[in-house]
Write a structure and sequence with these properties.
Elements lengths: L4 H8 L5 H12 L1 H4 L4 H8 L3 H10 L5 H12 L5 H12 L4 H19 L2 H12 L4 E5 L4 H14 L3 E3 L5 H7 L8 E5 L6 H12 L3 E6 L12 E4 L3 E3 L2 E3 L1 H17 L1 H17 L9
Parallel strand pairs: 1-2, 1-3, 3-4, 4-5
Antiparallel strand pairs: 6-7
Helix pairs in contact: 4-5, 8-13, 9-13, 10-13
Length: 287
Amino acid sequence: MDHDILAIIQDSMQSFSKGQKKIANFILDSYDKAAFMTASRLGKKVGVSESTVVRFAAELGYDGYPDMQKSLQKMIRNRLTSVQRIEVANDRLGDQDLLSMVLQSDIEKIQLTLEELDRSSFEKAVEAIVSARKIYVIGVRSSAAIATFMCFYLHLIFDNVVEVTANTASEVFENLLRVGEGDVVVGISFPRYSSRTVQAMKFAQDQGATTVAITDSEASPLAANSHYTLKARSDMASFVDSLVAPLSLVNALLVAVSRKKNDDLSKTFQRLESIWDEYGVYEKVQE
């Protein structure tokens, strides 16, 4: 369902039974908590049976409670403040083993990313990067770490890479001043989405550049301004963004690009190894 679930609930309130109204009111008041509750737990919270919760989801037009829950989670991810994230995470974790839960969640996100990634878009993005006149990469806030990582390795493969800095709104457009046809702009952003990255992608597309979005879903505002959307699952662990799957996707992208430039890359690294050795860039480990 494409519509805001909260609006659907509000519009349907008059048709709900007494028990369904309890569920509806709780979701409207505490959607950030309801999104991560099981049907059984939600039922206990508001004083109705699990089956009533399941019927409530069907009443709204969902295939089942998990489908409704997924819709709620998708909706809230870009709405939650950092304080709300902490509250939701504390509620989800409870007394569980934090280390195991977070690592297991990251493993699952990588697996889901592998299963859901559009292989055709991935291959087209690789071809676009390899043949680009100039490659621009932008990622701000938590996504800046991924953008910097990506640029570090792209610089070893190409001499036409620009990491778009975004300390101010004007700086973004100054970095993209000469972007145009033949260029590729890679935008990286996950909930809560960066408005500067979205604006940069729209500007680049308007100038005729090929745009590649690395984000979490087709509903992401980056997707609307991208020729190729590469989706990687992300999640929140308290106020921390889990970017393990996005980083793994970038790894795959870098390896695929490097394979296309294999001969040139071998020569580059032969020279680099000589320079690194001469200037003592790396410590020599004694056997």
